[in-house]
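Dock iron/sulfur cluster; give full complex structure.
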Amino acid sequence: MTEKRVLIIGGGVAGLTTALELTRFGIESDIVEKSPFAGGHGIQFACKATDRCVKCGACVVEEKLRDVCAHPGIRLLAATEVMSIEKKSRFSVTLRRSPVSIDPAACNDCGACFTACPEGAVQQGFSAAHNPFYGAMEDRCSRSSGGSSCTICRDACPQQAISFSPEPAVEETAADAVIAAYGFTPFAPIDKPYGYGMFDDVVTNLELERMLRRKGLPLRPSNNALPEKIAFIQCVGSRDAKRGHLWCSKICCGSALRLAGLIRHRHPQIEATVFYIDIQTFGKDFDTVYPKYQEDLRFVRAIPADVLAADDGGLKVVYAADGTHESREEEFDLVSLSVGITPCTGAEKTLSALGIDQPENGFSGASRDPGVFLAGAATGPMSIAESVADAGRAAIEAAAYLAQ
Amino acid sequence: MTTVIFGAGKTARQIAEKAAALGRQAILVTEDRLESIADAETLRSAASLSLLTETHLKGCNGGIGDFTLELQQNGGTKTVKAARLILAEPDRRTANYGVYGLAPSDAVICLSELKARIGDPAGFGWPEQAPKHLVFLHGISTESTPAIAEEVMTAAVQLQEAFGVQTYVLVGNLKVAADGLEALYRKCRQAGAFFIKFTDTSPDLRQDKDGTVVVEYADEITQQRFTIRPDMTVVDETIEPSEKVARLARLLDLEIDENGFAQADNVHRWTVGTNRRGVHCVGPSRGILSREEKALDAANAAAALARESGDPPADRAVIDRGLCIRCLTCFRLCPYRAIRFTEEERVEAMAEACERCGICAAECPRTAITIPGLGRKELMPERSAASDAPVRITAFCCSQSAKPAGQYARRMGRDLPAGLDIVEVPCAGTVSLPHLMDAFARGAGGVMVLSCHPDNCHSREGNMLAKQRVELLRSRLEEIGFDPKRLSIRTLASNMGVEFGEAVEAFEKMLVDLA
Ligand SMILES: Cc1cc2nc3c(=O)[nH]c(=O)nc-3n(C[C@H](O)[C@H](O)[C@H](O)COP(=O)(O)OP(=O)(O)OC[C@H]3O[C@@H](n4cnc5c(N)ncnc54)[C@H](O)[C@@H]3O)c2cc1C
Ligand code: SF4
Ligand code: SF4
């Protein structure tokens, strides 16, 4: 049975965990991850511990990624995508590698490419386990999108670690089972009336997470200074019947409260207000921690109608105040939009090649092919812990299938 | 390879079936009487299964692959050998009459009772005698859970659609963070249920002598006052661990969470894992889970059964029989219950259960315990710091947190102190007083212990033990006139590269200022 191989699409916590669980049955796998940085969304989150761990689970993703990198039975192919996949006696798969490649052995983490790229396409890794530590995001690189012959990053690299392949590099491989773990796409709040994309100081929860991870500080993008008053707006793109998003994303209440709690723990002078519909239970110790958050943060049970520019460079949040029919304007200098989990975009071709159904809500259902399994947030909103549990289920199902 | 499954309910059976499919022998052990077990005959006739009813666990020795359970049945005792143990006991539900200040009556019932009536309408004279107006009291002044919210909303839809009952759901935070619940909420409202939400206020509930309830409340948005006179009021329920789970957790020395479920609230515990290898905890034994999560647990428990436990690793704790005085410090402190008594009444570390955290070796008053790689001569800095550095710092870094955080800091291009020596340890609990003193003796101007955050330690409280030792040594250093600031401890997570850099840089600055 050991010669059987599994292809895992997506290197988020679900894909990583499935690979690790499969090794317990002696099954090896290839993880194909389209971004240069494996670990999915979770690898971008900051630790929100205050005087103790608040159980956000971000460090679990770090742990899984480290374990995967150290495991000889798992091949992690970052900056790689499935170009085509076809079921014959096995699945035959054509992979496509990103046209910009950085040789991890030659790279010394100096970051010259990062500084040099005029498109901001070169990004820094989120973890010590990201090898190479810098990577080019294809969607921003002018070589891959515009067909330009820009060589700025390559020329900037003192180690000659960067090379371009004229055609996207292609690799053929085969698999006996496939795990689809391509995760989710965070809701894009562009057409919400919250001024995202218009005002610098309106950010998403994911951007706030990244900022805390990389800088340790919740800065206002407009002036790189600490804010005085932060608003967290919940359910952006979730529980939204108008958009047909009839789901709660499960994780954003916990995320916002933990982020706000961390910020107040480190900077007690900053005030934090949470605008919400219903605060969802998160974690086993919710009954103990929620009263503390209620004391520490301000909660307003209303979903704002607008975010407008204030005269002094701040932001005005407009919402219906309790007990009156009137709307109220209140000033903040940083607004974090708790954007929700929406179905993964960009994997449609692979999805249909794998015979994966799409139920009404747009997430992935089951596959018609008995050799294809789904894991993680690809099937619907899920926390990190739930994604890990789901990956365990997918792994044993795949192992049972391969043993037949 | 026998598996003992505690419980005879749905989850326990699901796992037993999966064990049978894998060709594993399973014994279901339950305190319940045979009569109270639904469909016990099919259980008893399954070939790969045996059922022990009215059986109580009295004691457990050994570890994964070789547990010995002492069971009591009908006054007699019985010894059972098992490779793995699974806790699959159902949870316990308490009706929240008291929370709402109501007494059960014909007009005030709990959620489970309502479900029973919906399940057997004829038995209760429904639809003729069904209520016309029904109020749910749900998660007001206490926080509910998606599991209960799902039951409330499912019942409300059925009441509205099948029995024409007008339902009112009075609720604090409506918990929709589980699959399908937001859609169910919409469906519920479409079916005609009213949802009335309470934030800073709560409804006034008055129970009349005939048991019926009058509900008065002010709408939080309009401030308008309303009165509802339902002919039935349904209180929701709180889910708690059962006494059986609490007893099993105690007897098996399992970590519990703050509600008493038999799994620590620690993100590093595997889905159905406990602090003991080979002891698994599923579904309602480990927490309040949604329907989907329970199904995932059963699958994961089956995955655990499918695994072969390989050969025990060679680098685990070993207790020197000559030095051991059986003070039981290791037995008390091992977070994984890897220390056992042998038949000759000696104390022994089980290699297959030991996780190599180093806590026992650091705490043993006789230094009778050795763990390969963690001895005083072995725990050395991985690279010696530059000799021209202003000050040398030894940082003991937990491999789970501070070690990767330090690597991340370096890779981000952070200019870490030139005199920083990193000593990687499997857990901060490894770092003993002699380890700390040796670091000073080797010439460090300052010593740091960088551990995981409280509640995040893989080894329960290795971080806390390290902290105690650091504090003890600091006070001793002070007594001999040595600045205790030269010894410091702080907590980090693996993703805290920036904070790692800030911590060691500030420590270096402090040491330089001291000099
Ligand atoms: C702002 C925010 C905060 C959150 N906070 C928390 C929290 O505190 N605690 C918690 O438990 N959960 C939290 N979550 C949820 C958490 O992010 C998810 O549970 C988790 O990321 C799901 O893991 P996954 O592997 O299924 O998906 P993802 O993390 O989305 O990973 C999927 C991976 O697949 C890759 N991929 C996608 N398409 C393809 C393709 N076609 N080919 C190859 N690769 C592909 C992606 O690049 C990605 O790396 C949060 C989510 C958000 C948005
Ligand atoms: S707060 Fe989150 S990242 Fe930090 S230690 Fe706890 S689980 Fe890990
Ligand atoms: S090293 Fe840790 S796990 Fe092993 S026996 Fe000692 S205390 Fe227990």
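Observed: The pocket of iron/sulfur cluster (ligand 3) is lined by residues B 316-317, 334, 336, 338-339, 349, 354-360, 371 (CB under 6 Å).
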